[in-house]
Amino acid sequence: MILALESSCDETALAIVDDQAQIHLNVCISQISLHQKYGGVVPELASRFHFDVLDELSGEIRKALTNSSIHISQISAVAATMGPGLVGPLLVGSSFAKGLAASFQKPFVGVHHLRAHVASAVLDKVLKGSISERAHNIFPAYVLLVSGGHCLLMISDSNLNLKIIKSSSDDAAGECFDKCAKLIGLPYPGGPAIEKEAQKCTTQDDLALAYGWARQLPRPKSSAGFSFAGLKTAFRLLTEQDKKAKQNIPALCKALEIAIINSIVLILKKEINGDIKNLICCGGVAANLHLRKELEGLCNQQKMNFYSVPLEFATDNAVMVSLSAMLQSTKVEEKSVFSRGGLL
Ligand code: KG4
Ligand code: ZN
Predict the structure, then answer these.
(1) Ligand 1: which of 180, 197, 199, 285 to mutate, judged by most atoms within 8 Å of the beta carbon?
(2) Distance CA 93, CA 104 (A)
(3) pTM of the full predicted structure?
């Protein structure tokens, strides 16, 4: 059983998960409303907010250890995200976790944020049994990791050793959703806001408009990898040049959603060959239902198994940090916090 903390960006999260994938504690304190008026995360405010909620987290741990059946002796380690992420928030969360580990006399385990997203796939509802049995079933796998900071196609083994096949040459998929949403006045985070508007695009006329606009938006031309900067610029030009665009936000959002997802799927179609039979989709953008449907379709065509994260665990959370601490091989432990890059 691992107690874990996540504080890489704008969520302060705490979880206790056991090796049978039972979640004994799952708290997530979101800062979205704090950052919304700035249209994105302000790192200094985020660090202070993480610090301010530490008392609340201590209370949650105390409650879990006194009111539930968990005994401190069952906790084998305390884990925390070390990066990539915002350095201030990472320092607050990991220092707190190191303090907890010292006071509980447990080892401290550093976790790579991307590995944690990959580990969350063992929560797919079709899987049963212990964490290691689940991991045995789904790995090796192709992993599409789509979040606010990353858009990566990788291969992962059951110890979360990751090999990057394709990355983004500019923006990440979630970043493209966020920036385009901001352009048309939708709130941060943009991905869920765009999806919600796109779901309102249901009439034949609106759908025809959306698919027409989607065709005008570019897809990555080179085989170098994912790319969303051109799509973002084309979206801005569309909103400025076509008067109908801003008058039909659902169709506009649907067009953007189609173009982003199609850009992702095109790369996957080129890169995935039949040697590995599993595809995992994880990261915040994995909460998008249209993306899941498209990937399921692709896997059906290619006779592959598709695994994804339950919706509530797609965006940042601490459950995935516990899972990663259980699965990762010890050699990949992170020793110090880091903002970008870092070991894989
Ligand atoms: O993994 P995550 O919580 O944080 C990072 O590690 O970046 O991902 C956040 C990203 C944001 O860009 C957000 O707009 C996007 O995930 N996102 C979505 C959806 N829910 C969250 N994008 C598209 N559709 C969604 N339903
Ligand atoms: Zn994330």
Answers:
(1) 285
(2) 16
(3) 0.96
